[in-house]
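re: ur question from yesterday

yeah so i grabbed the chain u mentioned. its 633 aa long if i counted rite. heres the sequnce exactly as i have it in my notes:
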Amino acid sequence: MSDTATTETLGFQTEVAKLLHLMIHSLYSNKEIFLRELVSNAADASDKLRFESLAHPELLAEDPELGIWIDFDADAHTITLRDNGIGMSRDEVISNLGTIARSGTAEFVKNLSGDQQKDSHLIGQFGVGFYSAFVVAKQVDVRTRRAGLAASEGVFWSSQGEGEFSVGTIERAQRGTEIVLHLRDEATEYADAWRLRGIIHKYAEHIGIPVYMIKAQDDEAKAAQDVTWEAINQAAALWTRPRTEISDDEYKAFYKHISHDFSDPATWSHNKVEGKLEYTSLLYIPTRAPFDLFNREAPKGLKLYVQRVFIMDDAEQFLPLYLRFVKGVIDSNDLPLNVSREILQSNPSIETIRSTLTKRVLDMLSKMAESHPEGYQSFWDTFGAVLKEGVVEDHGNQEKLASLFRFASSRQSDDKQTLSLDTYISQMPADQKAIYYVTAESFQAGRLSPHMEIFRKKDIDVLVMTDRVDEWMMSWLREYQGKSFVHVGKGDLSLDDDSSEDKKKAQETQEAEHGDLLKRLKDALGEQITEAKVSSRLVDSPACLVVPEGDIGLATRQMLEAAGQKLPPSKPRLEVNLEHALIKRMEVEADDNRFKALATVLYGQAALAEGMQLKDPSEFVGQLNHLLGQLFG
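ran it thru and got these structure tokens back, copy pasting raw so excuse formatting
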């Protein structure tokens, strides 16, 4: 470290130290990913310099031809990668190379502690690409200077990937960054021209900046030390090339470049729009979800270019939040070059592009569901809960979204969400006018709910919804293909045309005949219920709880209130099965104390069947034990 004027030794952020330990001491199935990540970072540095040079052209003046240079020394076992991009200041070096500047770092490190095969697939994701250098390097040295700073403000950073790193000030004439990897003994194979060229062709053929390596030389040229650099990639942004000239492997490699995901994408769409509004988009549907998928505040969006000039990494304005899993690039000729986040939010072209791209993504998913159902099922299992958010956020595409949804069915024995609404409707009896569903904490709780008894008896299929988002979603999704949605546990239930005046009168007659029982139940349970009524839902169970139509389910309400959310007051009604032995026994019970004990047990059973937690479990257990004692005493 002789080229440093002043140095200091600092400790890594805790999560980084853990991450490096896992990288160094674990086995990885694909070590070559380190070069993809370092080249990608160098390309990003060049993109950022181009953007800053729009306002400050002097930053490019000293060295306008941007590139990435890769060299190696087989004898010294080193690889050197250099770029003339934006570079870093001392503070940026400490921040960028000493911490992981991304939310959810602790969770990422937790994920890395799993099996080694899984670990290898996580490398290169979530903003930790630089650290993949330590997969092959026992020491990494970095020399850098930020564009616009004086040569005396260069920075030297070095670490052996353990608990500490050193940072110092150096004299550096060139802007940009140089990284030297001192290879581990088991990784010396990478200090080879053919090996490095092969990796570059695999991962960096598509980036819009040339990658140079020293041209193969004859003995005479070597003796004269006549070094000639040659570009080994096309250096043309993939999305600017005609689709007919791009192979599937190139599309997949480009996805990995922009997403830092090791897996292939599920599908993609490359489209160029010409006319009044001109832009090119390349959109990908991933196969795997990032760990922060359900963090709505996490960075998301497309890479934005304007007239091939990089603007920003996470342009979230071009897709709705429920499509935050989509990766890709958009390049527009119709946005101003001095575009900023504020201009993006107010520019009239944005909404047009956003609407078109949203429909394009939904069409991609529809085509995948039709032509590759197994692949779509895998997508749904991974991203379905996020896609459901679109029902609330994107009313204009509600019908299209609903056609993409998959649900579990009460006729299934497991919780696999495979049934589409179109299939459900096609299998409905001719006289069924509604799509029936139930929301529950688990599949078995929903499938075996007392509310389902009449549906099992009549062999009517019911959608069983168990995702946390379902209750919220269904408060907005009212119908599909002209069929209304009906929650089997809410409001008054009408299964067919029997809900005529005759049925109403029969119900009223029952209510009147058993009015004393219903009043005693209401008096015994007090403010826990709004009323007691005769049920048309129940076949085997003695009672169930029913909330008003449009209200939040009981279990969901309890969960939200426990989380501190204030909700408008609501109470269920108790419905009883007059044919059940317990209800018949209660109707003739003369002892008010015993009747109240029976009512408490009845309500508790119904609440537990809904997935609720009892407010006073000890009272329920006490009353149950008291009744059992009387029975067997």
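noticed a couple things. The radius of gyration is 32 Å. also The longest strand covers residues 137-145.
anyway ttyl
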